[in-house]
Structures are given as C-alpha cells and as structure tokens.
Specification:
The complex is a heterodimer of chains A (286) and B (362). Chain A is an alpha/beta fold. Helix content of chain A is 26%, strand content 17%. Chain A has a seven-stranded mixed beta sheet. The longest helix of chain A has 16 residues. The termini of chain A are far apart. The N terminus of chain A is likely disordered. Chain B has two domains: 73 residues, no CATH class; 191 residues, no CATH class. The chains are: A alpha/beta (286), B alpha+beta (362). At the A-B interface, helix 3 and strand 11 of A face loops of B.
C-alpha cells in the first residue's frame, strides 16, 4: 500500500489535503488553545479511533521522521499497533517504541513519562475538543463563550463538584487555560499528565477528526489547570510503586490477574517501564 | 387527460410482477441462494434477526433476499411471520456468564482473567477496499486458537461488583417479565420493557441516540466494561417436568457499560450500568443499546432529564423501525378526501383575507 504497492500518496493523504491541514495547524499554533475548524477527511479507520491525530500526523510527517504511536501510554496495544503499521505502510517512515528516538509521537490518552524535547512533536487524538461541551451541548453557543472568554459555567461545574463531593471529581480531561486566554480540553489524559503540558519544550498538536477541529500548544506555553485557591489542582497518586520497574513517579495501570480479584499495578507507559527494567537511566534533557 | 382513479388491482399485480423481475436482476447472473446469504452476509442476517425479534438464520436469509437487501423491509417480513407462531414456552434467563465466547474485550482493564479475545472483528482493519475479494481470491485458513473455547470467562463487571464499586443489578423478583409483543407499552415503562423495546429497536436510531449522549446531550461518559459475543444455551423449565431442559443454543452479543458514579443520600458513590443484548454478532447495536439504556435510567438515578436520549417516551415511541417506516411511508397512500377538506378551508381563508384587504383599501 505504500507508493511501491501502488496508488496511495506519501502518508495516505493527497498534497492538497495536507496543505489544508497544515494551514489550520499554523493558525492553531498562532492562537494557542483556540480550536480551528478544518475539513476533516474520511480516513480508513473509524471516526473516534484517531482520525484527527492521523490527519495531523500525515500533514506534518516527512521521510526523515521517526514515529512512535501510543495508546493509553502503551506501544503494544491494538490501536497503537494498527496506526503505527498504517504509517509504516503509507509513508515508509521509521517507527520506534522509544520515546527519546521519536521525532513525532502520536498519542491517545497519555503524555509519555520521559520528558520531551524541543525536537519532538506530540500529536494528540482528541475525541471531544470542546472543553465546554459538558456544560453546553450547542456548538454555536460554545463558540460564543470562547469569543467572550466566558468560562464561568465551567467554573460553576467544578464548584458544584466540590459542593457535592468535597472535591473536584474531574479525573481525566481536566480543563486547562492556555496562554491565559483559551480554555482547552487536554484530551482525555488523566489529571496526572496535565502538569506535563505546561511549558513543554515540544510542540503539541491536537486533532479531532470527527468534530473537525485542530488546536495546538506551542513550545514553552503556559498551560494551567482550572482550580480554586482553596481547592488547588491535584493529581492521582498510588500507595505503591510500579511492581515491574519500581518507578514511583509514573502513572500506573491496574491489571486484574485472577478471578479472586488480585491486582497488579504497573506503569501504563510501556517504554518507560521497559527501559527502567533494562537499567537504562532516565533521559533528562534540557 | 382524464386520470383514472380505479383499476388498482391490475396495476398492483403488474407492479409485483415487475418487482419480482427486478429482484431477480440479470438472469445471466446465477441466482443468489439462501445458503449464500446465510453464510456470507452473516451480519445482515444477525441484524434482521435482532430487529425482527426472531432467531432463525434461514428465515432471515429469505427475508433479506426477498427484500433485495432492504434491511427494514426484511425486518418487517420477519416480524410479520413471527406473529403467526404459537408461543410454546418462555426460557429461563440466559446465563451469559456461561457463554462459549468467540470474542470478549474489556476497555477498562488492560488484562482480565481469561484475557482479551479479539475474535473475528473489523476493529483495526484499515478500511481499504480489498480488490482480492473482488477477484474471488479465497481467504487463507484462519489460525487455530490454543484457548479452550468452552472455558467460561467471568464477567468483567463482576470484578467491580465484588469490590462494591458498581451497583448491584436489581435482584430477581417474582414479577413476570413484561412483553411488548403481548401488551401495549405503558409509561413510565419499566426497565424490562425498555430493554425489550431497545433490543427490537432500529440500530441506526439507537446508534444516533447513544452517540448524542456521548457528544453532550445528556452527558454521561461511559466505559465499555465488557463486550462479549458467543453461544449461549437456551433452557426451559416446563412446570409439568420440574427440571430444566436445554433446547439449543444461539449466538448473542452482550455489552456492559460502566458509567460514572451516581450517588445520593441512600447510595454511596458508585459506578452504574447500562446494558445491551442482541441476537447474533451486533456490537454496534449492543453498545448503542447499553448507552441508551443508561440514559433512560436518568429518572431512577435522580439525574436531570434534559436530553432526547433521556426521554423515555421520545426514545421508546420512535425506536421501532417497522412502526416508523409504516407511518412515514403511509404518506404515499391516497389522501384525496382529507386534502379536499384542506383545500376547501384554505380557499375560504384566502377569500376572507382578500375581502379584508379590499376593505382596508377602500
């Protein structure tokens, strides 16, 4: 299915379409956190499975790039394998499972534990780009609210959670303010990953195919979770480290190991976990 | 030219003759056998059985052939046949935990006892037209599984339940289960009747309704706790015998959705469930059904009813595609008489309007 087996353009999309996506991305980078409409195409995988991320990746990938794809932090889950194989076939690019080797990382639901660098681009697959959707179902209305920076309803939602439950119960997709102006959905990453969005040296691109929106966080941009002075933003924590590599600083998956309900807690970031087990030092780059 | 309004009988006969010819298509092409439909259009057969509420692969194949692949027409044919059948017995509830599983995936745990079983699925196929199929190339033989297909797999929601994290399903009671094919739907409808209506409901309609709940109309973000497809035994327990009899098996798809916690003065915060079950291999329908089932529980769980998918009457009155298509298409029937009455009224109104205008002008 690559150019070699006939018929398809480099990275699947035709050049006109890629140019259209790139224009939308440029606008998105220029106005951090603002959702930019784009003419999303039908892709050969279902809407909601990463069509936005795939179109963004296809628009920015070049022959020299090295692509990593993760789903829930893991390189070996079915959807990640499927998308990585798609680009290996249609673009013939190198792929990797190692965070530090990748120039483009397409992700669903996680930001890698290994810190990213200025040479890397993180592409998010986004199901619901509109952070206000859960307080306002109408697109027309939410566009107006963004234009006026009218984010009171979102604050009320968080306030109501505190009033009812004594805490913010938003456990993932925790809304953030970008560059002090736009309220943004960080995509369904756990709260745990929100701090990694802030002032990241990597370019972060978000693609929502079904909802036909892209948005971006340029490098070193402020990304601040919405919270209250007396109820500051907190992240998930575990009482134990990863049972495979001993990491105490990573997001853990709960794995049921038998019918009796025995659980194992292990890093969701499979590359991070594997490299720690192999005894490799954690990459720390400026 | 005078347009005749009588003589429909001959026209109907001719139309049906033409239809039969049209259905047969080019007579140089071999005729489609029911076995081909049954074996090679399996998902169509499953859908027609599910919405037709009759589990019979052969009859569903016939309906699909007869309807030229028009799925709602095929459902209609099966439903109409179904009403002529005597009701011999009611089975005991299916034990889906004892299912011989072909496919089972959970989206909430990375691994579960028994493992994730992808089974035969379109998931992860790249949607590229396969021209080898057009060329009639036979598929390679499927690899054999190591796992024992008969080993029962514990339900994933049971794992949550044992920790008290998900609500218990309502305990079995002695109330007979409602049956919409025997009694009219009454509102508010009980959950058993709602589930039956959804199981018979149109896949496209339920899909759109379920989708709307995900997009923000009655937001209730769910997790697919488990989707499983496989064969289950049908057991009846005739009163005169006093012991259960296994009378055969059928393929079903079951979906347990796990939804974000409710919680009230009486109940601690916990996950709640939405449930879907359909005949055959029908994940899209089972998942949509589970989403809508959960949305329809808004009242019971003390949630505001603000979106279409949460409105019992709206959903249940419009989910049935046989009812819906009949009423929409009845507009093709003659309406000469009522239209004549409308014409008369409209002409009088216009005359009065013109008179009023004349008076103002004078």
């Amino acid at each position: 299915m690559s150019a070699a087996d006939g018929g398809y353009n480099f990275a699947y999309l035709d050049e006109q379409t890629k140019r259209m996506v790139r224009r939308a991305l440029l606008k998105a980078v220029a106005v951090p956190g603002c959702q930019i409409p784009f003419a999303s195409r039908e892709m050969p995988l279902p809407y909601g499975w990463g069509t936005g991320g795939i179109q963004v990746t296809a628009a920015v990938i070049g022959r020299e790039d090295c692509l990593k794809v993760i789903d829930q932090g893991a390189d070996d889950t079915t959807n990640a394998v499927s998308i990585r194989r798609f680009f290996a076939r249609t673009a013939g690019v190198a792929t990797t499972e190692r965070t530090d080797e990748a120039s483009i990382i397409q992700t669903r639901h996680r930001i890698p534990e290994t810190p990213l660098t200025a040479a890397q681009t993180l592409v998010y697959q986004v199901p619901i780009p509109e952070p206000l959707r859960r307080v306002e179902p109408s697109e027309r209305e939410t566009r107006r609210m963004h234009a006026l920076a009218d984010y009171g309803a979102m604050r009320v939602l968080l306030y109501e959670q505190i009033a009812r439950r004594g805490r913010v119960t938003q456990s993932y997709n925790y809304p953030v303010m970008v560059n002090g102006r736009h309220l943004m959905s960080p995509s369904p990453i756990p709260r745990f990953d929100n701090p990694k969005l802030h002032r990241s040296p990597a370019l972060q691109l978000f693609g929502a195919g079904r909802e036909r929106r892209v948005y971006a966080v340029p490098p070193y941009t402020d990304v601040v979770p919405l919270d209250f002075e007396d109820y500051p933003f907190t992240v998930e924590s575990w009482e134990r480290p990863c049972e495979l590599c001993g990491a105490a600083d990573s997001y853990l998956d709960e794995i049921v190991t038998d019918d009796a309900g025995t659980r194992l807690f292990a890093c969701s970031d499979t590359d991070y976990c594997a490299r720690r087990r192999a005894g490799e030092p954690r990459e720390v780059q400026a | 030219m005078y347009v005749p309004v009588k003589g429909g009988e001959k026209a109907i006969d001719n139309a049906h003759c033409w239809l039969a010819d049209n259905r047969r298509g080019d007579r140089d092409v071999p005729e489609l056998g029911l076995d081909q439909v049954r074996e090679q259009l399996g998902r169509a057969v499953d859908r027609v059985m599910a919405e037709g509420s009759l589990y019979d692969r052969e009859l569903a194949a016939l309906a699909i052939k007869q309807a030229q692949g028009d799925m709602i027409e095929a459902v209609f044919l099966l439903r109409a046949y179904r009403t002529t059948l005597p009701r011999l017995a009611a089975s005991v509830p299916l034990d889906t935990a004892a299912m011989r599983v072909h496919r089972r995936v959970s989206a909430i745990y990375k691994d579960v006892p028994g493992g994730q079983l992808l089974g035969p699925t379109y998931d992860y196929t790249h949607r590229l037209l396969d021209f080898r199929l057009a060329a009639g190339e036979p598929p390679p033989p499927a690899p054999e599984a190591d796992a024992d297909p008969d080993a029962p797999l514990p339900g994933v929601s049971e794992l949550l339940r044992s920790e008290g994290l998900v609500e218990d399903e309502a305990p079995a009671d002695d109330e007979p289960v409602g049956d919409l094919t025997e009694e009219p739907l009454a509102f508010p409808a009980s959950r058993d009747c709602r589930l039956q209506a959804l199981a018979r409901g149109d896949e496209g309609f339920l899909l759109a309704m379920g989708y709307s709940t995900q997009r923000g109309y009655g937001n209730n973000h769910p997790f697919a706790g488990e989707i499983r497809t496989g064969s289950v035994s049908i057991v009846i327990e005739p009163a005169e015998l006093g012991f259960p009899l296994d009378i055969g098996e059928l393929t079903v798809t079951e979906c347990q959705m796990v939804n974000q916690f409710a919680g009230s003065a009486e109940a601690p915060p916990q996950f709640t469930r939405g449930y879907g079950l359909v005949f055959g291999h029908g994940e899209r329908k089972a998942m949509a059904m589970a989403l809508v089932d959960r949305a329809l529980r808004a009242d019971e769980l003390g949630e505001p009813v603000s979106a279409p998918a949460q409105e019992q009457e709206f959903v249940l009155q419009h989910a049935d595609n046989v009812q819906a298509t009949g009423f929409v298409e009845h507009l093709k029937l003659p309406h000469y008489v009522d239209f004549q009455a409308e014409l008369d009224t409209l002409r009088r109104l216009r005359a009065a309007y013109a008179d009023a205008g004349d008076e103002e002008a004078s």
